[in-house]
Design goal:
The protein is an alpha/beta fold and 451 residues long. It is built from 18 helices and 16 strands. The two termini are 37 Å apart.
């Protein structure tokens, strides 16, 4: 059996509900496959999350950890990217535990990667082919970083009118590239070629799209809508919110940002349609299982509004800084023409991928690792709880969700302690920790066992 893992980087679960009428191909996978409605990733950022996909263990064990505890330490991220050996030093030994090391013996492994963080010498190490498509940082990002370095950022903000006129001129002349990642169609055009070239082999194909990621492109000309026509699309705070730490957006501008983000899934959906058509034309549709998911979600002011929060937790947008559901609850669909349709409400996690791939490939599962998604879907086994941990930004905070949908959030470097009943409070707005000390202790005991 062939296996295709499609990951839409930065896709939160709620987006698919918002956009369901605009994404026919993703809806086809959902309606005709296994839909895991209670699925969580192991970490709210790419590296730690994907490492759990490939090793079957939580970040604490696989060691893919990078953290900037305060805003002033954010330069460590740039250092890590420039010094890959340092960045992966703690994790290198666990590269030997990737499922691709074993899978490559029976399946031709192909990676089509849109995220620069997923380096070939880490995630791509045991793929037969691993292609990375990523552009250099765009002009505005370079301007912001340089201006901060030479302490002229505030000055640039003061001469905003001049700057915005220049940006608009550059934008109209297409001198500025607004995205640093390659669009979905480029990735899929290459994926289709690889599928055709290897159609007589069993293959594993991983495609990771970046179209949902910041800076949230206006792919569908939303700025032309009447409600957004007054927005200056060159406004510095809209170009890349990561580098504009003061929350200066109006409610209309916030709505515009969110709608841009949500609509980006349409571009990915169109390309998924091309993959499905390619499988059908090459008589591979009935021989292939498609897994659709994400590595983490994205926050849009659900729990914070302070963009310049020194510890990041309240910054309100982006990812890597909290363990609330907008960052760790993501969609997961498992489709094969022979599986049928089923909604699964039981807990699942990114640590379940390892044995899932082995089961689909006909390889003996690892009994020491968490159960496969097939076990969960077919009611053979279940997860008693799942965990998310290892923030990229801010003081470390962990969460545990049990099979009754109670969720505990615990700071390990601060006093943060919150409890939510996700059955009645899915948006995590009412902390019930003080009224439920026994439940808090029960989940704390399980979390400390993990720690």
């Amino acid at each position: 059996m062939n296996i295709i893992l499609i990951s839409a980087d930065t896709l939160k679960a709620k987006t698919l509900e918002t956009e369901k009428n605009n994404i026919p191909n993703i809806e086809f996978l959902r309606k005709n496959g296994f839909e895991f409605k209670n699925h969580y990733v192991s970490s709210p950022w790419t590296g730690a999350s994907f490492a759990s996909f490939f090793t079957g263990v939580y970040p604490k064990e696989h060691g893919f950890i990078l953290n900037c505890p305060k805003l002033k330490n954010v330069s460590k991220l740039s250092f890590a990217k420039k010094n890959k050996p340092v960045f992966f030093q703690a994790f290198k030994h666990n590269c030997e535990n990737y499922f691709t090391k074993i899978l490559r013996k029976s399946h031709y492994c192909i990676g089509i990667q849109g995220n620069e963080m997923c380096y070939k010498d880490s995630f791509g190490k045991y793929f037969h082919e691993y292609l990375i498509f990523f552009q250099n940082p765009n002009l505005m990002k370079k301007i912001f970083l340089f201006s901060k370095k030479i302490k002229l950022f505030s000055f640039l903000m003061k001469i905003k009118k001049i700057k915005d006129k220049l940006l608009l001129k550059l934008f109209n002349k297409k001198k500025i590239e607004w995205a640093s990642s390659i669009p979905a169609n480029t990735l899929v055009n290459n994926a289709v070629k690889k599928i055709k070239a290897n159609k007589n082999k069993d293959f594993f194909l991983w495609i990771n799209f970046m179209d949902m990621h910041t800076p949230y492109l206006d792919l569908y000309n939303l700025s032309n809508k009447s409600e957004y026509k007054t927005i200056n699309i060159t406004k510095s705070e809209l170009l890349d919110l990561r580098y504009n730490l003061k929350n200066k957006l109006s409610e209309t501008e916030k709505k515009f940002v969110i709608e841009k983000y949500n609509s980006s899934i349409r571009a990915i959906d169109k390309q998924i349609g091309k993959i499905i058509n390619c499988l059908k034309k090459n008589s591979l549709f009935d021989k292939t299982t498609i897994i659709f998911t994400s590595d983490h979600g994205e926050e849009f002011w659900e729990h914070g509004t302070q963009r310049d929060d020194i510890y990041f937790y309240n910054r309100g947008i982006d990812h890597g800084h909290t363990v609330y559901n907008e960052l760790i609850k993501v969609p997961l669909f498992l489709f094969n023409s022979s599986f049928g349709s089923k909604k699964i409400n039981k807990l699942s996690s990114s640590v379940n991928f390892y044995n899932t791939v082995f089961e689909l490939a006909g390889i003996k599962k690892d009994s020491e690792l968490p159960v496969s998604l097939m076990d969960i879907a077919l009611n053979k086994k279940e997860m008693d709880y799942v965990i998310a941990e290892c923030l990229l930004l801010g003081k470390e905070t962990k969460t545990i969700i049990d099979k009754k949908n109670f969720k505990l959030i615990k700071g390990t470097e601060n006093s943060r302690l919150e409890l939510y009943d996700l059955n009645t409070d899915p948006d995590e707005k009412k902390d019930i920790s003080k009224e439920n000390p026994k439940k808090v202790q029960e989940l704390m005991d399980k979390l400390y066992f993990h720690i």
